[in-house]
Write a structure and sequence with these properties.
By secondary structure, this protein is of the alpha+beta class. It has helices at about 15-40, 50-60, 75-95, 210-215, 215-230, 235-270, 280-285, 290-295, 295-310, 355-370, and strands at about 1-10, 120-125, 130, 135-140, 140-145, 145, 160-165, 170-175, 190-195, 195-200, 205-210, 270-275, 315-320, 345, 350-355. A 5-stranded antiparallel beta sheet has the order 2-7-8-1-6. It has a 5-stranded mixed beta sheet with strand order 11-10-9-12-13. Helix 1 (about 15-40) packs across helix 2 (about 50-60), helix 2 runs antiparallel to helix 3 and helix 5 runs antiparallel to helix 6 (about 235-270).
Length: about 425
Amino acid sequence: MQLRYSYRLYPTAGQRESLARAFGCVRVVFNDGLRARQEARENGLPYISDGDLSKQVITEAKKTTERAWLGEVSAVVLQQALADLNTAYRNFFASLSGKRKGPKVALPRYRSKKDNRQAIRFTRNARFTITAGGKLRLPKIGDIPVRWSRDLPAEPSSVTVVKDSAGRYFASFVIETTDEALPGRAQEVGIDLGLSHFAVLSDGRKVDNPRFLRKAERQLRKAQRNLSRKEKGSASRQKAKHAVAKAHAKVADARRDWAHKLSTAIVRDNQAVYVENLAVSGLGRTRLAKSVHDAGWSQFVGMLEYKAARYGRTFVKIDRWFPSSKMCSECGTLQESMPLNVRDWVCACGATHDRDINAALNVLAEGKRIVAAGRKPAAETRQEAETLNACGGDVRPPLAVADADEAGSLRGAA
């Protein structure tokens, strides 16, 4: 399994200038390659191969006066820019032909120097190294100080230098890791995600929703109001814009750190984890959009999934249409309706249920049924862990032949 380990970088003024030059060269090469393929398509010419495109926008471009400055940066980062473009095209064609599952992928778009995120990637061919003093040595940039929060578990295969919207620099190392199976546990847990409580576990525990964005809204509102008062194009506006980005980055960092700690604790303490496959993109278009995005369900579920695969745990996503809230976890009776304002209810069998705990128990039972039926856990596959839903299964009942005596009307009859 490949994992990313990110560390904060603190480049000097000269190194920041060199990084900005590299960001600009990578952006220009990407845009030149995209433009060349678009013009070839408009003129009815064949699709430009990866090798020919590299010769055209890098090798030959360096010989011209307009692009001679491409030689000031490492050739590896320029090649990686074209590799990203080629990957974007392959994803588009695979999505167009139906080989790629999920939402449709659009054609690649031009990159802008005003993008909030700028990045360059160095592979082993670039011969980047970590010095004895703990600095990251990059070709044509220099030795950049790194804040090492932990040691790298193995030799990295590549490093991506990222500048985020808040002006911070990070080094993201790709590490090939081996599975580290944790000691077996007898516990299994079903998780019901929500907004009033972030997660309700089948063992009765309720995890409060931290609401990082909601708690920081006052500070964010103040920073945004200050930005709106600045004159466009002024230095003070850039400073205010940086303050807004920094405030948002602080919220995102806190949410990510909290999700990592919770997901690690759940995977460590349980042999199997079952969770609902929520339609977050759909819920993000409702009046609860801000609360849904503030919760960060997708990020949390993704962490559970890859950590379960890494540490030898079973992870299963339950079909989003599974009626976990309307079903009695004691007798299996399905209620006709269950409005959101109903938090406690009594089944006809006499069982009294807390809505969220009952849903978590049903998720646990459904997850066990799926595993018992032979579905593969997350440690073996990440895609087949989901039950069929509207993206993979039938959404309408199959066609059937009508009975001979079935009432009906002739085709074309009024």
